[in-house]
Amino acid sequence: MHEIVHAVPQDWAASAHVDIDDYHSLYRRSVEDPAGFWAEQAQRLDWIKPFTVVKNTSFAPGAVSIRWFEDGTLNVAANCLDRHLETRGDKVAILWEGDDPSESRAITYRELHAEVCRFANVLKKLGVEKGDRVTIYLPMIPEAAMAMLACARIGAIHSVVFGGFSPDSLAGRIGDCHSTLVITADEGLRGGKKVPLKHNTDLALAKTIGDEKVLVIRRTGAEVAMHAGRDYWYHEVSAEVSADCPPAEMNAEDPLFILYTSGSTGRPKGVLHTTAGYLLHAAMTHEIVFDLKEDDIFWCTADVGWVTGHTYIVYGPLANGATSVMFEGVPNYPSNSRFWQVVDKHKVTIFHTAPTAIRALMQSGDEPVKVASRASLRLLGSVGEPINPEAWEWYYRVVGDGRCPIVDTWWQTETGGVLITPFPGATPLKPGSASWPFFGVQPGIVDSEGRLLEGACEGNLVLLDSWPGQMRTVYGDHERFEQTYFSAYKNMYFTGDGCRRDADGYYWITGRVDDVINVSGHRMGTAEVESALVAHQNVSEAAVVGYPHDIKGQGIYAYVTLMAGVEPSDALRKELVGWVRKEIGPIASPDLVQFAPGLPKTRSGKIMRRILRKIAEDEFSALGDISTLADPAVVEDLIANRQNRR
Ligand code: WT7
């Protein structure tokens, strides 16, 4: 196959922060002298007390420990707000676009600073102290960013929970880190539909220990139940506090936030990020990967409920004094032109979204794109899942009119910020490849025995040394942290992704190699969906796998064995889908449910997921060896009743 390569445009090579020579020299320096390199880069931040130690990290079995700049002190909110006041006080920090196209708000750095200080005083008034956990369950409104920054200002640890999660999922996350305060809104608004966030919070709090307070932001004005002594309106409490709140002096390694993410097994893990390393990585990647310039209008379409929203809507852009667009709505409301109309309305210059959105919009053709000029755009980004070359080319040719480079950025909740990416002024672009390691990042590809492979190869992606934005631990469970990321391959961080490196040294992420599936760029543990299914009274056993889905990237395929005497039916299938939606949230809804009288198991009772994956992919001619199955006959029934016929 002939490989397409888009050369670096000349003006980009000349004007970008990093050109090809810079890339090679800086990269070499970053891995040969990490302490020197990162000490220099850390000057991007304003320190209260400068650090003397740069890097103190170990991936050694049983002794994994990650510390950066460990004796320095600083405050994240001061870095995102106070230090810009003198030079950028009147610059727009957050450019908010409502779900309804007639609603928008421009908040300057000065205004954001004042509101965050006020918000921080509200938190204090409700008893929140340094080190306390605060759960944030909000729609995409500026108050979500304000709440995060207010926590950072007083040293509280935020845990943002995506507004699409169910009351049960919310309760689990509040309980796991013992949050003492939940910040929510009366309702959210997405695509013209209302999301009952306060009501969901009430349901969640019926399942927690019960000492939490609730702070409610008024968004839609809907009437909601307020429990005296537990629930407080933000607008009422904030009227009683001052807009003066000095930032707390935080150690570089004090926790900044927890963000729950799905893994292969068990319940979601609380990924813990700390103060200095995370912020440095967020700021630096945001500037260099997106080639940020002072006048850019940067729009990342993620939700703040995911790490992409944390790093590239809030912390990276604000640390850099940029204008960050925050969008409450969805790509297809009121029409499929919405993204491009918002681009024109706010003169967006850098646009960053997920492949699933591109694929969905691509389906309705070029017309909805062409109604907008998109003349302001100069750079496009992609994140969250592999982007297929067809979608890449459409994004490049139609959305970007062939003049905007695309940065396909690979990273994870655990990595804090981008680790593998093209550099727009340096990297000839290969559609579908995340390309090159960021500074200080040392990727490796290992075979199944853990041997590092050289040159062009394919295997599992590992990282050989630490970087400042790396997660520090699983909240409350350091052993699980070591077990999950450092036990597969000795002295290496295992990403869970498969990867190919080509002869030019480009990295091509091939997708998860564990029991994690990536649905529309959202990470889902198959075990979580399985445990939701078996909690249904009619289900005796369930096995969930991913399968290729044209728009979502991967869809959720559930094999369900019913209790004896329960008859399979379409109505029951529907009920089970609705059940999972209610248990976890809409993002976990199975796309296909197959009733299976038996699952393929080894004689020791282990489900052979490889076979289930193949059948779900409609590739059952290549099932491999099934002779070790306890009952090979179940496979015939599974094939005969498969739900995905392509
Ligand atoms: C997983 C991490 C990156 C923040 C949002 C998702 C997949 C992410 C890419 C990409 C191919 C990608 C990986 C990764 N992924 N970006 N550019 N190309 N795959 O964060 O929810 O923690 O998921 O998303 O499989 O492991 P996340």
From TrEMBL:
<feature type="binding site">
    <location>
        <begin position="384"/>
        <end position="386"/>
    </location>
    <ligand>
        <name>ATP</name>
    </ligand>
</feature>
<dbReference type="InterPro" id="IPR011904">
    <property type="entry name" value="Ac_CoA_lig"/>
</dbReference>
<dbReference type="Pfam" id="PF16177">
    <property type="entry name" value="ACAS_N"/>
</dbReference>
<feature type="binding site">
    <location>
        <begin position="190"/>
        <end position="193"/>
    </location>
    <ligand>
        <name>CoA</name>
    </ligand>
</feature>
<keyword id="KW-0479">Metal-binding</keyword>
<feature type="binding site">
    <location>
        <position position="523"/>
    </location>
    <ligand>
        <name>ATP</name>
    </ligand>
</feature>
<dbReference type="InterPro" id="IPR042099">
    <property type="entry name" value="ANL_N_sf"/>
</dbReference>
<dbReference type="InterPro" id="IPR000873">
    <property type="entry name" value="AMP-dep_synth/lig_dom"/>
</dbReference>
<keyword id="KW-0007">Acetylation</keyword>
<feature type="binding site">
    <location>
        <position position="536"/>
    </location>
    <ligand>
        <name>Mg(2+)</name>
    </ligand>
</feature>
<dbReference type="Pfam" id="PF00501">
    <property type="entry name" value="AMP-binding"/>
</dbReference>
<feature type="binding site">
    <location>
        <position position="520"/>
    </location>
    <ligand>
        <name>CoA</name>
    </ligand>
</feature>
<feature type="domain" description="AMP-binding enzyme C-terminal">
    <location>
        <begin position="528"/>
        <end position="606"/>
    </location>
</feature>
<protein>
    <recommendedName>
        <fullName>Acetyl-coenzyme A synthetase</fullName>
        <ecNumber>6.2.1.1</ecNumber>
    </recommendedName>
</protein>
<feature type="binding site">
    <location>
        <begin position="408"/>
        <end position="413"/>
    </location>
    <ligand>
        <name>ATP</name>
    </ligand>
</feature>
<feature type="binding site">
    <location>
        <position position="581"/>
    </location>
    <ligand>
        <name>CoA</name>
    </ligand>
</feature>
<feature type="binding site">
    <location>
        <position position="308"/>
    </location>
    <ligand>
        <name>CoA</name>
    </ligand>
</feature>
<feature type="domain" description="Acetyl-coenzyme A synthetase N-terminal">
    <location>
        <begin position="23"/>
        <end position="80"/>
    </location>
</feature>
<comment type="similarity">
    <text>Belongs to the ATP-dependent AMP-binding enzyme family.</text>
</comment>
<dbReference type="InterPro" id="IPR020845">
    <property type="entry name" value="AMP-binding_CS"/>
</dbReference>
<dbReference type="InterPro" id="IPR025110">
    <property type="entry name" value="AMP-bd_C"/>
</dbReference>
<feature type="modified residue" description="N6-acetyllysine">
    <location>
        <position position="606"/>
    </location>
</feature>
<comment type="function">
    <text>Catalyzes the conversion of acetate into acetyl-CoA (AcCoA), an essential intermediate at the junction of anabolic and catabolic pathways. AcsA undergoes a two-step reaction. In the first half reaction, AcsA combines acetate with ATP to form acetyl-adenylate (AcAMP) intermediate. In the second half reaction, it can then transfer the acetyl group from AcAMP to the sulfhydryl group of CoA, forming the product AcCoA.</text>
</comment>
<dbReference type="InterPro" id="IPR045851">
    <property type="entry name" value="AMP-bd_C_sf"/>
</dbReference>
<feature type="binding site">
    <location>
        <position position="539"/>
    </location>
    <ligand>
        <name>Mg(2+)</name>
    </ligand>
</feature>
<feature type="domain" description="AMP-dependent synthetase/ligase">
    <location>
        <begin position="82"/>
        <end position="463"/>
    </location>
</feature>
<dbReference type="GO" id="GO:0003987">
    <property type="term" value="F:acetate-CoA ligase activity"/>
</dbReference>
<keyword id="KW-0547">Nucleotide-binding</keyword>
<keyword id="KW-0460">Magnesium</keyword>
<keyword id="KW-0436">Ligase</keyword>
<feature type="binding site">
    <location>
        <position position="512"/>
    </location>
    <ligand>
        <name>ATP</name>
    </ligand>
</feature>
<dbReference type="Pfam" id="PF13193">
    <property type="entry name" value="AMP-binding_C"/>
</dbReference>
<feature type="binding site">
    <location>
        <position position="497"/>
    </location>
    <ligand>
        <name>ATP</name>
    </ligand>
</feature>
<dbReference type="InterPro" id="IPR032387">
    <property type="entry name" value="ACAS_N"/>
</dbReference>
<feature type="binding site">
    <location>
        <position position="534"/>
    </location>
    <ligand>
        <name>Mg(2+)</name>
    </ligand>
</feature>
<feature type="binding site">
    <location>
        <position position="332"/>
    </location>
    <ligand>
        <name>CoA</name>
    </ligand>
</feature>
<keyword id="KW-0067">ATP-binding</keyword>
